[in-house]
Amino acid sequence: MVEPSQPLRRHVRWLWLSVMSFTTLMLLIAYQTRWVYPEIHAYFSQAGNLTGQQLATRARVYLQQGLDLLLSLPRDSDTRERAHFQIKLAYSLFDIGLYRRDYPCTEPSLAAMDDLLTRLQGSDALETDHLRENLLKPMHCLTQIEMHQLDRRSAVTAEFVEQTRRHQGQVLFGSLVIFVSGLGFWLMHELQRRRAARSARESLEWMAKALCDPLTGVGNRSAMHDDVTAAGGAPMGLLLVDIDYFKQYNDSLGHPDGDRLLRRLVQLIEDNLEREARLYRLGGDEFAVLFVCHDDEILSATCRNLVESLRAANLPHPSHPHSDHVTFSVGAVRFNASHAELEAGYAAADTALYQVKARGRDGWAVAALDTSEMSG
């Protein structure tokens, strides 16, 4: 019998080694896909689920609707009945064991809502201050719950990413062991590595786009919250910037011109800010500016420079009822970077902004968290 030649035996061995290596690698990839994909799908797929964060959000919306009804005039029986229905809906979503167990503000908030529901069913007169006291505390509590749920979700996500990273390290180690078995496995491993790197790069690019406003290119509300978290308690200045009569501008010149104006104003704001300042678009014609700020003088100077720079730009506004050019209204506040103080600071700056609007717009106001103010 003719013995097979040495080169043929060598080729057969390499072919066998390559097939075995390829099969082993495919098994590893299949295992990784079977382990990782169900975990991703189970955690990130929210179809048909009602999370704690969604319950708190819906309850807060119903509370806001009930408060709006009670603050409207006249407060007749029909209005009270509709408000009672909205608050009852909020109560039912709020009154769950998880909230009672994990959030101390739940019990007093439910008690306040229950008291108000009793009053609504009776004929007692409802004073505005009493309404706000009974509903603003539950709304604040629900906001705290929402923020805490978001933090918990972020922590679980970070833990899942770390577990995935460890698992991928194990797969890489196995791939390196298989690498010595043949050139065929090395080629397959390299192709897999490049696909994984491309997928990670695309994921990072997608995440960066998710934190960016597509029209203006600046950050969005999520980016602002992330930057506040990253600041870790540093003293920050927050500016809320609103374009006066922007709707009228759009109505007279059209939305394309309105979009061009937004981009022009973003450039103008960025040109007048310090290098470390960050600009965000919160929606529509409302922007926010976040920067390190140690005293109110710096905050006031920044507001003044923004308003005066826009006046100097003299951008035409054909539908402005009080001016022939585009103007800003700016509300500002200082706070220490944290979720809780951002919430309070945002509310204070928003109040200052509406004070500017009440005075006729085209100006600025600086509010402190202790409610003292400076303005110009």
Characteristic terms for this protein:
376 residues; alpha+beta; EC 2.7.7.65; six-stranded mixed beta sheet; Four Helix Bundle (Hemerythrin (Met), subunit A); Alpha-Beta Plaits; disordered C terminus
Provide structural commentary:
The protein is an alpha+beta fold. Among the domains are: 52-150, Four Helix Bundle (Hemerythrin (Met), subunit A) (Up-down Bundle); 221-375, 2-Layer Sandwich (Alpha-Beta Plaits). The protein has helices spanning 6-44, 52-71, 77-94, 97-102, 106-121, 128-179, 183-210, 221-231, 246-253, 255-271, 296-313, 339-358, and strands spanning 235-243, 278-283, 286-292, 328-336, 363-367, 373-375. The protein has a 6-stranded mixed sheet, sandwiched between helices.
Q: What's this, in brief?
A:
This protein has twelve helices and six strands. By secondary structure, it is of the alpha+beta class. Among the domains are: 52-150, Four Helix Bundle (Hemerythrin (Met), subunit A) (Up-down Bundle); 221-375, 2-Layer Sandwich (Alpha-Beta Plaits).
Fourth-level CATH superfamily of the domain at 221-375: Reverse transcriptase/Diguanylate cyclase domain
Radius of gyration: 29 Å
Instruction: Give the CATH level 1 class of the domain at 221-375.
Output: Alpha Beta
Tell me the major beta sheet.
Answer: 6 strands, mixed
What is the number of helical segments per DSSP (H or I, 4+ residues)?
Answer: 12
* Net shape: extended
Q: Per DSSP, what share of the residues sits in E-state strands of 2 or more residues?
A: 5-15%
Question: What separation lies between the terminal Cα atoms?
Answer: 105 Å
Helix content: 55-70%
Quote the CATH topology of the domain at 221-375: Alpha-Beta Plaits
Q: Give the strand tally.
A: 6
